[in-house]
Amino acid sequence: MSDLRDRAVQLYDAFTHEHHDRRTLLRQMTALAGSVAAAEALILGIAASPAAAAVVVPDDPRLRTRKGSYGLGAGRGTMTGYFARPTDRPGKLGAVMVIHENRGLTPHIEDVARRMALAGFFVVAPDFLSAQGGTPADEDAARTLIGKADYDAVVAQGVATLDRLRGLRSTTGKAGAVGFCWGGGLVNRLAVAAGDVLTAGVPYYGPAPAPAEAAKVQAALMLHYAGKDARVNATGLPWAAALAAAGKTVTAFTYDGVDHAFNNDTSVERYDKAAADLAWGRTTAFLHTMLDG
Fold first, then answer.
1. Which candidate, 101, 84, 112, places its Cα nearest to that of 280?
2. Which among 6, 74, 76, 222 is least surrounded, fewest beta carbons within 10 Å?
3. pTM of the full predicted structure?
4. pLDDT in tens, 129-174
5. Nearest to 222 by CA among 208, 244, 202
């Protein structure tokens, strides 16, 4: 059963990150599981569930939240984002940008933004599909839009968002970024492109740039990898080594025996509470060290 589960996760990851063909996924899963019904049950357990209960409810009285547009600066247009901050901390807070997976700005990522705000930060979770009309409800459609996005423009939007966060009167003037999967890859790319606009970055299982680009990084980085995630680790682990060799401030953790997306508690099969809790505690402590006034 363990081998079957691991192979199913690999097939699902190939679907979500490579071919995006649901009929191919179902055919492969059926061959693996023995029937269409068993295949659909496997897929349901691995996929993120949009109906999963939030850890922090949207109307939690400990938070002030809103979803709306914000400007990126002169001539750069606007984006939609989800904002959250704690109500019991009136002073200046470190600013954190939470970057979504390749499904766009989902209710789960909004929930993660609220968790980060409760940890003591001013948080924005941008919708990097804003220019394409915003994140659609259909996650397959969202993946297609992500694949068609102008990545240079996405990076520029990320840098502009960080710059805006640093300039807010309610923040300490320091900005960090946390991203998951596609978002983790974007955190790595922002670390290369943003210079000192990014103070600290935390990619979770994010595909990495070429090791030669490590010399351009100015931000402190904390990298989280899943032990069973061969696809991401093939670029992520050399990236971590290159950052260390270049004398950058970097800490990398690999969580043995867990899958890609282990932090996503809306995925029954991939979520690993022990690894997720450990990584989250490390992440928030690191961000407080780097971003607090």
1. 112
2. 74
3. 0.93
4. 999 999 999 999 999 999 999 999 999 999 999 999 999 999 999 9
5. 202
